[in-house]
Amino acid sequence: MRLRTPALITIVAVAGACIIQRPVIKQLDGPGLSQEVTSPVKAHLKDGSTVLFTNGVSRQGNDIVGSGNRFGLDAQEATRVTRLSLDSIAGMESFGRHINAGASVALSMLGVVGGAVATAGLAVAIFGSCPTIYADSAGTELLQAESFSYAIAALFEQRDVDRLRLTSTPDGKVVLHIRNEMLETHYINHLELIEVKHALNEEVLPDQSGQVLAVSNERLTASIGDRAGRDISQVTHESDGSVFSTINTRLASVTANDLDDYIDVTVDAPPSADTVALELDMRNSLLNTVLLYDHILGAPGLGSLDYVGKDLENISNAVDVGRWYSSNMGMRVSVRDNGSYRRITRIGDSGPIAFHRMAVLVPAIRSDDGKVHVRLSFVADDWRIDRISVAGKWHRPTARNIAVARVTMPDPSQTAKTITALAQPDEAYLITSPGQSFTAEFDVGRGNDSERTWLVAAQGYYSEWVRGDWIKTASGKPFTPTNEVLVDAIRGWRLKQNSMEASFYTQRIVAR
After folding, report:
1. How far apart are CA 414 and CA 162, in angstroms?
2. Residue 411 CB: number of other CB atoms within 10 A?
3. What distances in angstroms separate CA 414 from CA 20, 428, 430, one per listed residue?
4. Residue 156: helix, strand or coil by DSSP?
5. How far is CA 482 from the centre of its chain?
6. Taking CA 238 as the corner, what is the angle to CA 232 and CA 390, rounded to the nearest 5 degrees?
7. Per-residue DSSP letters for 157-179?
8. Which of 105, 288, 392, 492 has the highest Cβ tally under 10 A?
9. Residue 99 in contact with residue 21, Cβ under 8 Å?
10. Residue 206 and residue 190: Cα distance in Å, rounded?
11. CA 316 – CA 326 distance, rounded (Å)
């Protein structure tokens, strides 16, 4: 994750607005506020309305008290509010007092956000994790990618590159639909398309750093097994929806000193190659979501407000958390060298919604048996892996970066500023709220789509809405980045896995 210095920004006081401005609002989410809050506060209510408390709020028992203005779904007129029940609040966030008129523009989507919150059902696990990207593929709209899934604060802003599966329009355009289907605020800094032309017998994939690789379709025969001794070669042979997950006995036996599961991939060393390309098609399980919902945000309740909005704005704190997270989560790739495994690189988490197909280069180091032994290590049950394969031939192709040419927003007069905000990774952001979406068009020109592949690069971060119910039931235990917390998260995930997956993947906010 790339660190960048945050700056205080502003947000318009209109329900359901999509905003372009400079970073960054502090999230103040806490129906369970146990102290006075002096920052301006926006409360999103379960009936779809929004209340703005420009002078802050305080908590009195089961109520939030302050001087506020309540906007209905049409956001035309405000009514005065001095008290709200915690039971009526879906989430809260703070917002700056001043709007930079030169850098900010509200893209009116009145009623969309309010309606989304009102109809979402406010389940414990709302479909979520960052901008979801859809595109038409041969007449069918398909989920293509999710971006910057674990960038939960400004200092964790990151750039994600995802391979797309689509065809261009007859007049030479690629059209993407970017949605906010979550109870989150998204800060999109940059969006672009990457085009790679390649041979018909090659596949283009991003590597772990977002650089492109052209990988031969001729794959090496691989033997693949997991820590439990299972042969998973057939399960991971094709991208067919039959996925690897950690065996339950391993999940039940994790300790703070032994968190990992692993997969071993063994191939005959190619005679003329010193490096092989390991291809993976995978997404995260919801273990990371349990860690975020239950431990980082849920258990502290209101305390998570200061943790996300204040503590993680401190660079040293963010670095400490980043180091802990990267040392445990994601996937570590190692190769056997002189009898022991040597770490080569780390693959970051990609999110629990869309499968992410990528490749990583591994030195073809021959063991005594003449084979290359690669180990993929990860916290138990952090991944759902659909395909693992190895190619002996690869190269770095030439890539063309394509900027957004057009966007479709509710107010056509404001599209120019949207395009400007997305054009460069700078201090201008497109900010979206639940239920909002926009369409981005890229001019790629006519050509043979079978000989070119597109990837989408998106940079940004997001702020999760801490739900009112989380704060009401919070234990008050502050989050600390330790292995013991991961053990607790794994145990909680093991108990709720089936029910959580059923609700998570069927309940999403409809974006319009």
Report:
1. 28
2. 13
3. 10, 14, 12
4. helix
5. 22
6. 75
7. -EEEEEE------TTSEEEEEEE
8. 105
9. yes
10. 18
11. 15
Tell me the C-alpha distance between 380 and 383, whole Å: 8
From CA 190, how far away is CA 129, in angstroms rounded? 18
| pTM of structure | 0.86
Residue 297, token pair as written in the block:
């945000």
d(Cα 296, Cα 292) in Å, to the nearest integer? 5
- Residue matched to tokens 């025969």: 221
> What single letter denotes the amino acid at residue 205?
L
Helices (H), 183-247: none
CA distances for 217 relative to 61, 232, 357, 394, angstroms: 63, 21, 14, 9
Kind and range of the H or E run holding 85: strand 78-85
Closest CA to 267 of 385, 386, 366, 395: 366
The residues pairing with 359 across neighbouring beta strands, listed in sequence order, are 279
State how far the Cα of 234 lies from the Cα of 152, in Å rounded to an integer: 36
Question: Within 10 Å of residue 469's Cβ, how many Cβ atoms?
Answer: 18
